[in-house]
Amino acid sequence: MKNPADVSVETSNAQAVGNIDQATGGISPAIHPSTTFLRDENYALFVEGNSYSRDENPTYKVAEAMLCNLEGGADAMLFSSGMAAAMTIVQTLYPGDHIVAPRIMYWGLRHWLRSFCSQYHIGLSFFDPAEPNALERAIVKNTTKLVWLESPCNPTWDILNISESAEIAHSAGAILAVDSTVATPVLTQPIKLGADFVVHSATKYLNGHCDVLAGAIVAAQDNELWQKMREIRLNAGCILGSLEAWLLQRGMRTLFLRMDRVNQSALVIAECFEKHAKVKQVLYPGLPSHPDHDIAKNQMTGGFGGMLSFRIHGGENACLEIVKRCKVFKRATSLGGVESLIEHRYSIEGEGSPVPRDLLRLSIGIESVQDLISDLTHALG
Ligand SMILES: *Cc1c(COP(=O)(O)O)cnc(C)c1O
Q1: Ligand 1 atom, smallest distance to 109 CA
Q2: Ligand 1 lined by 244 (C-beta under 6 Å)
């Protein structure tokens, strides 16, 4: 049963794009733990498309249909993690091809790109988003095959202009993939701005409860490259289990509600601590003081999100003292869950990290904003 065509994305997302349990009428879509599916007497598949769960499973399809709806894409695929999704795109490249990516991005992927590209003789250049025309200058015409963006960039929250980057990538013969984990489809829809692929660590906001590891790619078009990615997922087996896919659709149904809350709380917290004596700078795209605030206003149509960073007077030691005193904020990595997290990124990324040592990253959850403010006020001392 599909939703009426004229309802908003918000409504269809809350109702799992019309998926109910067809067999029982259950309002919640069913979970299908089966790894293998029956054939009839004539050896035709009992249900076309259901064969073996490394390729397809009806439970994946619910979450995939929801992702397509959210991003306005042609098709979507789930993966076992955000990294598995990202690497599936990278693995469509050949030796001699070239990738361009921002200097500040999810560190795990930056690290793995370096290692993978050097092993497979794929060129890799990083550009500084703060420098004008840096992306254009990093591109090698007819050799750059993939422009990778992350916006907002983790953990300084620079905003990259997606529609401009799409034009630059396409005129050089490259595809544009955008890691939109932090923005979520509620804030920004990269496909509408010209991206070819949107990548998510669904582990973060999409699931929203820090209890599922998952990734996703949403494609603007079902084309040859997309079929190549489907083949990679099938053969590499980088697929999640049906329980995780089911939990993900459940988490995604409250995405708009959660984003609404974190948009509000993060902005209040950013404004509240911008003038604090211990805080050198608050990095949040929703603040007029943020260098990319104007791009953010145009591109982040659904709010500025729940991620912000504080740069602290007194550097690394002062940061670690503050973190020690937090009681409501949990000291943990990751982001996008219902509970607020605080992290000293440099300690996690270590030597060679481009992240300033005086930076604390905050993932704002859905708790009472007053409790969060009190906790930070106490911790900052
Ligand atoms: C966490 C994260 C990833 C990696 O996702 P996993 O699900 O942990 O594999 C990629 N990009 C961003 C922006 C992330 O925050």
Answers
A1: 10
A2: no
pLDDT in single tens digits along all 381 residues of the chain:
456 678 999 999 999 999 999 999 999 999 999 999 999 999 999 999 999 999 999 999 999 999 999 999 999 999 999 999 999 999 999 999 999 999 999 999 999 999 999 999 999 999 998 888 999 999 999 999 999 999 999 999 999 999 999 999 999 999 999 999 999 999 999 999 999 999 999 999 999 999 999 999 999 999 999 999 999 999 999 999 999 999 999 999 999 999 999 999 999 999 999 999 999 999 999 999 999 999 999 999 999 999 999 999 999 999 999 999 999 999 999 999 999 999 999 999 888 888 999 999 999 999 999 999 999 999 999
**Ligand 1 atom 2: residue of nearest CA:** 201
β-strand 330-331 against 341-344: which pairing, if any? parallel
Residue 368: CA atoms inside 13 Å, Cβ hemisphere, count? 5
Ligand 1 close to Cβ of residue 240 (< 6 A): no
The yes-or-no answer on residue 204 being catalytic is yes
Give yes or no: 253 in active site. no
DSSP 198-236: EEEETTTTTT-SS----EEEEESS--HHHHHHHHHHHHH
DSSP classification of residue 44: -
- Max Cα–Cα distance, the chain, nearest Å: 76
Residues 6+ apart with CB under 8 A from 27: 20, 21
End-to-end CA distance of the chain: 55
pTM of the entire structure?
0.97
54 classed as catalytic: yes
